Amino acid sequence: MTASVVDYENLMTTSFSDANKTVKSGAMSRWERKQLRAKAAAASSSEDVDVTRKPFGSHSISSSSISSMGGDRFIPNRAAMDLELAAHSLHSCGSEEAGGVAADNVQNGGSIISEADKDDYNHALGANILGSSSSSSSHRILSFKEKAPAPHGDTVNNLNVLYSTESMNRQRKTSKLVSRHIPSAPSRILDAPDLLDDYYLNLLSWSDTNILAVALSQTVYLWNAASGDIQELCTFEGDANAHISSVSWVQEGGAHLAVGTSAGTTQLWDVNQCKQLRSMDGHADRVGALSWNKHILSSGGRDNIIVNHDVRVARHNVATLSSHTQEVCGLSWSPDGLTLASGGNDNKLCLWDAATSSTSSPRFALTEHQAAVKALAWSPHERNLLATGGGTADRTIKFWNGQTGALLNSIDTGSQVCALQWNPFEKELLSSHGFARNQLCLWKYPTMAKVKELDGHTARVLHMACSPDGGTVVSAAADETLRFWNIFDAPHKSSSSKRSALDAQGAQSKKLSKAMHIR
After folding, report:
1. If you count Cβ atoms within 10 Å of the first and of the last residue's Cβ in the chain, which end, N or C, has fewer?
2. Which of 117, 152, 13 is nearest to 73 (CA)?
3. Would you say 85 and 132 are in contact if contact means Cβ atoms under 8 Å apart?
4. Residue 329 to residue 287: CA distance in whole angstroms
């Protein structure tokens, strides 16, 4: 083995000495350039060598100077080479070249060995002896760089961990936000001709008996979501500008519908008999907002006032609330019935106590919005949590503590907020918007991370209502269409029923075991 190593080193020395005499490199190394500058400085000014560097210029050197200096040398790195494997590769290549083309078949001990089997045998022998599984032809004899050591199995790249963990956190957050499938397309689209494009009106309401009320110009239509039947309830006749300005179902039973008109009257209709029960006055201009609190019906008008009607008695006007200086366009009672939220075109949000009289002031008058406040929604999950949306100049959704009047959070949506609807099953808020995309956005509360955007409407989405089962939301837009979205997912009853069945079986088995142990 020592002799082969000595032969290999002699061969390497001879090869490099021959190569150094014949091979010339066109690129000059740094020490050569320094030597050339030193010679030029020491020489007289009459010499022709010019080593001055010019901006954006290419330098040229005479061939005589290059030949006198000699070519570059590439010195192999012995530490990065396997000398035994390299010597074996050289000898095997040399024997093949010297022997020429071998015979196809070689007879050995009476058996015929093919050339392919012989090559396989040589490769296997070399792998066993030299400890290398690769063939000699693919092995690099000369190595000029020592490869970096392979990392250990427990080696960790801190930046890799940082960014991979960050991406994993994003994926986890996304997966948590989208825990269910939300279709991007509506499940149903209905035409709504003559739906007024007026931001300050409320023309859509869905009852707990699964009947949708829609006001189209001067007429109120009822659409049965279960059967698909359409019924015309009433038509408000008057001058050329007469129209229905608001509709709202009673909270329980779904048999009575309140209708606000452009004349300032509030009508109460019995849907089952298609008959008007009464007409209540109190406003000098159109009634654009309605909200029920048991037997109390609150109405807000363009005359800047709010009237509380007790529909059980003849003298229905029990309170007239005055705080807004412009049209009242949003009204909403809290789920506990203790607080009334009102929004107006004066950019003001007012919170009223249920026991407020006509001479009282609102509990809070909040002026943080920069545009009309129409979208109002009380949270069904947290008491006294109110979400409000501002108009074009504001574009924000704000969250308030209805008990203290504190502003909890504010988020800029980038477009006019027309309506808000809470998910009855999870802490999510759905908002409808105007220019420029006219989309619906689903937000996760309280992080306000955007879960989903629903496109389809070609004009601003003015109204929204939720089905009685809580799974479907209908949106009405100025493009005169109604679109039904399966956004909210009701909790599955299968798991709860299975759990209750297992609990019942467990209780029964316990009773049986106790009975069996009684002697």
Report:
1. C
2. 13
3. yes
4. 9
Instruction: Output the CA angle 508-513-515, nearest 5 degrees.
Output: 95
Q: pLDDT tens digits for 99-148?
A: 544 444 444 444 556 666 777 777 777 666 655 554 444 566 676 666 66
Distances (CA, A) of 264 to 198, 240, 243, 282, 381: 17, 16, 11, 7, 35
Tens digit of pLDDT for each residue in 71-103?
Answer: 445 677 776 677 777 777 777 665 555 454 444
Q: Predicted confidence band at 252 (pLDDT cuts at 50, 70, 90)?
A: confident
Q: What is the pLDDT of the chain when averaged over all its residues? A: 80
Are 432 and 442 contacting, i.e. CB atoms less than 8 angstroms apart?
no
Letter string b/e over residues 249-272, b meaning 16 or more CB atoms within 10 A of that residue's CB: bbbeebebbbbbbbbbbbbbbebe
Q: Which positions ≥6 away from 483 have C-beta within 8 Å?
A: 186, 188, 189, 190, 456, 457, 474, 475, 477
Structure-block tokens of residue 120: 């396989």
359 CB-contact burial (10 Å; exposed 0-12 / middle 13-18 / buried 19+): exposed
In sequence order, what DSSP letters do the residues of 86-135 get, joined into one string?
HHHHHHHHHHHHHH-SPPSEEEETTEEEEHHHHHHHHHHHHHHHH---S-
Alpha carbon distance 324, 348 (integer Å): 7
Q: Nearest Cα to 60, choosing from 51, 70, 69? A: 51
Answer yes or no: are the C-beta atoms of 289 and 300 closer than 8 Å: yes
- Report strand pairing: 449-454 vs 461-466: unpaired
Phi, psi of 374 (to 5 degrees): -110, -40
Enumerate residues 6+ apart whose C-beta is below 8 A from 304.
322, 324, 325, 326, 327, 328, 344
Reduce the DSSP state of residue 323 to 3 states and report it: coil
Helix or strand or coil: residue 213? strand
Phi, psi for 376 (deg, rounded to 5): -130, 135
User: Nearest 5°: phi and psi at 30?
Assistant: -70, -40
8-state DSSP, 193? T
Residue 419's nearest CA partner among 122, 199, 267, 135 is: 199
- Do 450 and 442 contact (CB within 8 A), yes or no? yes
Indicate the SS3 state at residue 67. helix
From the list 106, 108, 29, the residue with the least C-alpha distance to 69 is 29
Check whether 209 has a pLDDT greater than 50: yes
Tell me: the pLDDT tens digits for 1-56? 556 666 766 666 665 555 454 455 556 777 788 888 888 877 755 444 444 544 43
Residue 484 host element (H or E): strand 481-485
